[in-house]
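for ur thesis appendix - 43 kDa receptor-associated protein of the synapse. copy paste whatever u need, i formatted it the way the template wanted (i think)
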Amino acid sequence: MGQDQTKQQIEKGLHLYQSNQTEKALRVWMRVLEKSADPAGRFRVLGCLITAHAEMGRYKDMLKFAVVQIDTARELEDPDYLTESYLNLARSNEKLCEFQKTISYCKTCLNMQGTTVSLQLNGQVSLSMGNAFLGLSIFQKALECFEKALRYAHNNDDKMLECRVCCSLGNFYAQLKDYEKALFFPCKATELVNDYGKGWSLKYRAMSQYHMAVAYRKLGRLADAMDCCEESMKIALQHGDRPLQALCLLCFADIHRSRKDVQTAFPRYDSSMSIMTEIGNRLGLIQVLLGMTKCWMIRKELDKALESIEKAQELAEGLGNKLGLLKLHCLCERIYRTKGQQQELRDHVVKFHECVEEMELYCGMCGESIGEKNNQLQALPCSHFFHLKCLQTNGTRGCPNCRRLSVKPGYV
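the 3d part is after this line
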């Protein structure tokens, strides 16, 4: 298969894929991969296969094609191709929750400075790295990466990247319980879709609607949450987007739990867990198990709640997800307090505070914890964040956290 024929077949596959004929598109692209003698064409078709498998939630296949693409990039001996393939390798590992590997591959991309493509892709690299740091609950570095990605999006007038970063920032602030910002950023993403997204994939609308649903639920606006989640789920079902279906099912379950309708919540948690397990979203599985734990606690079935916690703890420890561990210690504290088991209660109180210290989840001005309840936060240029009311009340000439970190221990 020559260069022109390769190009035609790739375009044919793209047309099929955009018409929701995914399996036919995959067959066309696989034939190109088998028969094409054009390395640049093979590189491009591998990119199509990587994107398609990512959207279907087939993350192990995505990683497999990303590894092949790295070999093709080396064969082409072009740093632009190599940068793009390392980004795909980073994104594959991000989807599989291999966050340390993601960060490592992202750093490799950023070190390949000077190439034409790297300047265009640095925003995507920063976004992927930010998502990985968020998965590890390293909040300051996550925010730093998201802000860099946003700067790249603005400088390059890349509205699609800006939309994705806004969704990640919504997730960031939802985890830290600044629900006003958790809603603001996905609303901004929705505005971008409405204003610029005529030719975009519907996945951008679905993604922004899902993050809005999460924020609305946290704010107690359950009817709004349900409307947004239903719109997101409708698009996810139309496009066979399994990862988003799993997240929507989790959100539906959380909404029902917020309404104390545990009987309706459980089957949705089970359906979400099934897809999360199938696609390998271990971070999502932790969220499902946290929701199920809270349902068991509503039913006062504390031993079943502890069983869910044990499974979630194993996953959180494996991923290095510190916020997940903190939430689990908090739930254990409540359970053992109810059971009157003082030793276990004390153990989890200690571990809870260790997690808070490790993540620096406290305001450097008032000393109170961040992420315990809904509070407006404000980040300084260094990406350390504080209670907004503390900054407004006390003001600051610099970051109190950075000043503390920069003080070297003296010699006695």
